[in-house]
Amino acid sequence: MLSERSQLILTLLLERKSIELDDIAKLLGVSPRTVRNSFLEIDEFLESKNLNSLKKQVQVTYSLEDNKKLIEQALATGESSYDKEEFWQEPSFRLQFIYNKIFWAKRRVTIEYIMNYLLVSRSTVNNDLKELRELTQRKGVYINFQKKQGFYLTGAEEDKRELYFIFVEKTRNSNDYLEDLEVNDRSFINYWIKKVEEELMLQMTYNSFQKFESIITVIIERMKSGQYISETYQTNTGYSINEMEIIDKNCRLLEKYFNISITSSEILFMVKQLYQRKFIKNEVVYQGFKVNLNILANSVIKEISKELKVDLTKDKELYENLALHFQTTITKDTDISDLINEEMYKKIQGMYTNVYNIVKKVMNKVFREQNISVSNDKEYSFVTLHLISSMEKMKNIYTRDLNVFLVCHMGIGTSQFLKNKLEQYFNFHMEVVTNNYLQEYLSDADMVISTIPLENIDTPFVEVSAFLSELDINKVQLLEKKVLDKKMVQEKYTEGSYEPMLKELLTENTIETQVKVNDWKEAIIYSGEILEKEGAIDKTYTNSMIESVEKFGPYIVIAPHIALAHASSKDGVHEIGMSLITLDKGINFGNKENDPVYTVICLAAVDHNSHLKALSELVESLKEDSFNQLLFSSDKEGILQYINKNNN
Q: Among 129, 131, 200, 261, which lies 20 to 30 A Cα-Cα from 548?
């Protein structure tokens, strides 16, 4: 029996005839490796039904169409009616290759050099160059030739790079174009990008991260060779001063490490390349209001878990995938759900009717609460796929944890043979036991497989033949599914993890007004000490909050005049906590856009989501002018009344 994921992929194949592995991985929100495993499972299924296995295709496929003897004769005479180019790479590859060589121009590039490298004729190279010149000219880049210099490019450096990146984006492995570069510092670039992600509070998709890593490497190499973006370069950024300051600060690390000078134009160019990536950002703006994607994804997953009676809140990848999807749909950027056509989403509705209806119900409710336009059927289908994938992943985890007793009446050798055969189809843990052992330790088993009838046992049980027929395999699969479904319900989502409301955290003891401090450090220390007295954190956490600002900049200033101080939950947090102080005078944190700060909120979280209910209520309160006026006037009694009244 195929898994639900494999059934869905096979359904897609029946509809589309062929599918790209990367597209399916993106559609289902899983890794390409997981999809490959599903393809293997489909192969085994098809072969078991005496059908052909899947046909694996590559980008270019070559085959001989002429008679074998004719080709052998041509080889023997040294003559052939075929031009060599037909036995080599596609024209699109040759164009990318030629531009790549001219772009880097580490040696003299001539027609002869290209001919020898690609093993093609002069006429082929001339035709390729003609086509490449037409393409580059449309981008403002010109290919010129001088006898001593060979081919070279003219035009603005930014245009040369943009054209190069187009070729990179079209390449399955973007690192192919960096083979000739003397770059031994990929690990530092990798670290640098992750640091920028963290400080900007965004997370790129896996593919985008890889592409951006290559792009940054190219930019650094161009600067090292003296090829700089023009000083007049401008781009319609729309980025905040804080974002620009973070990237500018981090570019100093690149300068120091690679011994280069990074101009303001180069920084602008990097920022543009960064924000062309697909990434998960904590907040997006919708109709003038900020929407926290973490809170939105958390609310959807939590409500769906309740409806399905299955705990999906522990799947971190599900949070990230939904946050990314919600970002693209809310901001109207490229919509991944376009991968689902009308016929496909109707099939999803039919295959997973219960999950689909729950998704539709929950998304309508949660999105309406956030004042976001209700999504369409394709969006519900796309989220349904993510949930099915997450539940499949959970089943795999539960499967590996199953404890199965195997009882066989035909001796140790046959028992081991049966176990080996079962292991070809199932991933659960099996232990060959005697009938006496079974009776004594039956309570330790999740299910029992036996070649002999067993009576009066409460543990799920299936009887099979010692030589395991196809019917036996189906029987074991059905029992496994029944046991797993029961386990998932037993592990159903509950309100078990403590999710306090805002009024439970911001109380008489954790709110102080008209606090006198001299600078931002003292403001954070003061707000931290409140939680230290409450026993929620220790001094380590307070110090970590200060270190975070020193290291990453004033990113904690989340809105005009408001700072939300926080650090890692690993740094001295004992329980979830929140404090709020208002200052007697405005303090500058270094955020030109939102300074001065009059209110500092300190948040201590113990895990990924238990604080999000209170944080969500805080975000909603901060949208209200009446609450902000209470903060500005330092009216403690009014602040407490507002929180208790509006967060029930």
A: 261
| Residue in the structure block whose two tokens are 């772009």 | 103
Length reported for the chain = 648
Q: Is the pLDDT of residue 515 over 60?
A: yes
CA distance 614 to 502: 4
The pLDDT of residue 338 is 52
φ/ψ bin of 457: left (φ > 0), alpha (ψ from -120 to 50), beta (otherwise): beta
In angstroms, the CA 131 to CA 99 distance is 11
- Compute φ and ψ for 461, nearest 5 degrees: -140, 145
**418 closest CA partner among 462, 482, 484, 356:** 462
Amino acid found at 364: N
Closest to 618 in 3D by CA, of 292, 287, 198, 285: 292
Task: Please state the rounded mean pLDDT for residues 478-507.
Answer: 73
Please give the structure tokens belonging to residue 404: 């199965």
Closest by Cα among 492, 550, 541 to 521: 550
Peptide bond into 453 cis (omega under 30): no
Rg, Å, the chain Cα set: 31
Per-residue pLDDT for 408 more than 50? yes
Q: What is the 3-state secondary structure (H, E, C) of 84-96?
A: HHHHCCCHHHHHH
What's domain 87-171's architecture?
Answer: Orthogonal Bundle (1.10)
Domain 402-490 = CATH 3.40.50.2300: yes
> Whole-angstrom Cα distance, residue 5 to residue 18?
17
Cβ proximity of 343 and 11 under 8 Å = no
CB 308 within 8 A of CB 499: no
Domain chopping of the chain, boundaries: 4-48, 87-171, 177-281, 283-398, 402-490, 502-646
pLDDT of 329 strictly over 70:
yes
Among 386, 561, 566, 611, the active-site one is 566
**Is 566 labeled as catalytic in the residue annotation?**
yes
> Which is it for the CA torsion 578, 582, 583, 584, positive or negative?
negative
The span from the CA of 295 to the CA of 608, in Å, is: 11
Are 530 and 582 in contact by the 8 Å Cβ rule? The answer is no
